[in-house]
Amino acid sequence: MTAVEGIVRARQSLPARIASRAGGGALRVFLILVALFWLMPTVGLLLSSLRSPADIASTGWWKTFADPSRFTFHNYASLLDNSTITNSLLSTITITVPATVLVVVIGSLAGYAFAWMDFPGRDWWFMVVVSLLVVPVQVALVPVAKLFGQIGIFETTADVIIFHVAFGLPFAIFLLRNFFAEIPRELLEAARLDGAGEIRLFTRVVMPLGGPAIASLGIFQFLWVWNDMLVALIFADSKHPPITVALQQQVRQFGNNIDVLAPGAFVSMVIPLAVFFAFQRQFVSGVMAGAVK
């Protein structure tokens, strides 16, 4: 080691020296351990859903490794026989899919308009959209509930979808506008010279280039709506609640109904996890591209 290297190393702080020595192997092992720790509740719920109610009540889920032969799929058969849970899954899909599609479509159109179309007050309107990002959902619950009650859509599937779309659009427009603004102007001008109008320019040029951001937005919106409980608890139809509310009602009404709760909670958790892991690269690349300009 030369004298210059020694001086540089001596001036480095302790965290910097630790970070420099933590090579790829050690860092990779640490990240794997963090991922396993993060997945532990999901694994525990999966193992609990494959155990009998008596085993769940008597021992912890980690005891199943000692006797794997006690696993059973009877809980999932009970889940399929429970009409409340199965109908709640259908209600969740009915709410989540339209709320996600509408946010993606409207957010894409608005993001393109704010990025590449000139209209009066464009920048001011975009500032209004950005300011809506800081509005908490809790602030709007009571006034929006009164509004929905006055127009006759309170406690319906439509009001839950409208609420999620309204609160999902500010982030969608902000994300996609920043992503679309990074598209080279020369590319759009070349398309216009070839005779492309705004609709064709949007569908043939902007949408394919904005695939990562659009995919990340769809994943984000899907996860938020699927896992939501607060909005569903207030606005959803009490006779056809989403899965989050249905599981909460099962706990309240049938506290020992663990043979239905465990598999129901796992199914409710594994679907958004599968969606996220399937499109995690698009999610990360889209969010980073839209957040950093």
Describe the structure in your own words:
- By secondary structure, the protein is mainly alpha-helical.
- The chain is 78% helix and 0% strand.
- It has helices at 3-11, 14-21, 24-49, 53-58, 74-81, 83-116, 122-131, 137-151, 157-181, 185-193, 198-209, 211-227, 230-235, 243-253, 258-278, 280-291.
- Helix 9 (157-181) packs antiparallel against helix 12 (211-227).
Any idea what the shape is?
globular
Helix content: over 70%
Write the H/E string, N to C.
HHHHHHHHHHHHHHHH
Q: By helix and strand content, what is the structural category?
A: mainly alpha
Count every helix, treating DSSP H or I runs of 4 or more residues as helices. Answer: 16
Count the strands?
0
Q: Give the low-pLDDT segments.
A: none
% residues in beta strands: under 5%
Key structural traits:
293 residues; 16 helices; globular
Kindly summarize this structure in a few lines.
With 293 residues, this protein is an all-alpha fold.
